[in-house]
Amino acid sequence: MKYTRLALSLVAVGLLAACSSAPKTGADQGAAVEDRSSGASSAGIDSNRVVAVDANAASGTGLAALKDPKSILSKRSVLFDYDSYVIKDQYRSLIEAHAKFLVANPKMKMLIQGNTDERGSREYNLALGQKRADTVKKALSLLGVTEGQLESVSLGEEKPSCGDASEACWSANRRGDMLYSGEF
Amino acid sequence: MNPRILSVLRSTIPGVLVLASTLAQAQLSIEITGAGANRMPVAVASFEGESTLPRAVTDVVRADLERSGLFKMVELGPTPIGADAPVDFARIQSKGADAVAVGTVSPSGSGRYQVQVRLIDAAKQAGLGSQMMVMAPAQYRTTGHRIADFIYEKLTGEPGVFSTRIAYVLKSGSRYELQIADADGSNAQTALASKEPIISPSWSPDGSRLAYVSFEAKKPVVYVHSLATGQRNVAANFKGSNSAPAWAPDGRRLAVVLTKDGQSQLYSVNADGSGVQRLASSSGIDTEPSWSADGMIYFTSDRGGSPQIYRVPSGGGEAQRVTFEGSYNVSPRPSPDGKSLVYVSRNGGRFQITMLDLASRQTQILTDSSKDESPSFAPNGRMVLYATEVGGRGVLAAVSSDGRVKQRLSVQSGDVREPAWGPQPRN
């Protein structure tokens, strides 16, 4: 199992590094309100804090982590740069943790919702949001999550987490959210 | 027809869209921000016997014609002129009216009324046509719109759109309502209320149904909704996103955008959700399909690197690029006669309604706003209804195909968005 985890992590590192771009500042990341945790900035993931998920726990203990503010699994948002559909390096550990959880809990399903900022056509933005959701889905798939567990959809510009017409808000709205069974 | 009237009308463009309202909470109000250059002076006399009705039909007729931006209403005073009464042409001409409508309202039994209307060319002192209708008193608005359509068509040679309806989405706080109103904004009715977004309403060709995208299932799903019964069915709910419904001219099939096989791509389905078929394929995004009367499907695609408008024969074939200027051209809608295309273009960061003459390739930016979205043609092709933003709030606006007549429609609180102009009613 450990070997598998390592292998998956390497795949993840390779994938994420391949499509990483310059990280944004912490101030931008703090704006996402889709965060289910209280207080903590959703996207400002402490790269030192990787929660150890017991891969053998098919249910029960692992599920509690989904809502535990101390667990990385309670973080659900990935922010994207303008006109970008690649996952930034800083979200590597977040994606890995969720992949690990889904592999360990094959009955759990995830709905990935892609979002965009408000500028331009609603329907075209819906298609752009889909690209973001698909990117997250692909990253999780490459880490071993089965196709049947994942659905990527788009909310386009319809569900902004931040309502002002400012770059700070727009960057908070360019995001992918991960929802688990029972949350959608 | 009077050549003088024709020449006046040739230099202007018919328009319509009046939004007053009956609902206090969602009161749509209209502001006229531009009118035709040469408005034709027309008088609508008070109809004989009209005072027996609870509300005057001629008030509706005058408001319709005035707000079209095409006509200048000439006041004749309160004295009614009956449909068969002799007309004092010297007086009409002295008031400057080129045409005058006269009429008679009389009881026709069972609480109903007969309305007779006659339209007269004041210069030639000759009749332009007459119309007779029977109405219940509560139908004074509908009757007024039909009379305005009659006058409009006689004077312009084109059908009016005063009797049509519009659909739009009203967002108040976290509540979304898909509403249907008369083209003058009255009789607003809610077809669907939801806590989740509703976008992209599309009218069936017969005006009885709307297709739209609702996010009530936490993802975009396409529904078909019968307005008279409130019954609705899922037309597309595949894995991934389902969006951008557009009725085929036959009223049986819908073009939709699905992501079940990867990126957003064009498909068609029957209105009941059966019989899904691929319409086109690309390696990029294809979305916002819209059928033209001549069997083409116009759509937005980023297959060339930036979002541009393309078209493909609805029966299949090679896609052809339609727009080339600029790096962002989206939301295409072919005109009812198939000769032009309206869409949203980005010009230096501003999103504006743009008209393309398909034969000459000439483009014209019709608006001076900067957040325009979702254009749709009036069924006579003379006006384009769209969404824009004023003072941070979503409003509807309409502009004539030549950019001259401009109207703005807003509610006191809340955002209005995603408008779609309905088809001509089928009597």
How would you explain this protein's 3D organization?
The complex is a heterodimer of chains A (184) and B (427). Chain A is built from six helices and four strands; from the N terminus they run αααβαβαβαβ. In chain A, β2, α5 (122-142) and β3 form a beta-alpha-beta unit. In chain A, α1 runs antiparallel to α4 (92-104). Chain A has helices spanning 2-18, 26-29, 61-65, 92-104, 122-142, 167-173, and strands at 77-79, 110-115, 150-156, 175-180. Chain A has one domain (2-180): OmpA-like domain (60s Ribosomal Protein L30, Chain: A). A four-stranded mixed β-sheet of chain A has the order 1-4-2-3. The relative contact order of chain A is 0.19. Chain A has 184 residues and is an alpha+beta fold. Residues 1-25 of chain B have low confidence and may be disordered. In chain B, β19 and β20 (308-313) form a beta hairpin. Helices cover 10% and strands 44% of the residues of chain B. Chain B is mainly β. Chain B is built from four helices and 30 strands. The radius of gyration of chain B is 23 Å and the shape is globular. In chain B, α2 packs across α4. Chain B has two domains: 39-156, Rossmann fold; 165-421, TolB, C-terminal domain (Neuraminidase), CATH 2.120.10.30. Chain B has helices spanning 3-10, 57-67, 89-94, 140-156, and strands at residues 28-34, 40-44, 71-73, 99-109, 112-121, 126-135, 165-172, 175-182, 189-194, 198-203, 209-214, 221-226, 232-236, 242-247, 253-258, 265-270, 277-278, 286-291, 296-301, 308-313, 320-321, 329-334, 340-347, 350-357, 363-365, 373-377, 383-390, 393-400, 406-411, 415-421. Chain A binds chain B through residues 111, 113, 119-124, 126-128, 130-131, 134, 151-156, 158-159, 165, 179, 184, and chain B through 197, 199-200, 213, 215, 218-220, 239-241, 243-244, 257, 259, 262-264, 285, 287-288, 300, 307, 328, 330-331, 344, 346, 351, 373-374, 392, 418.
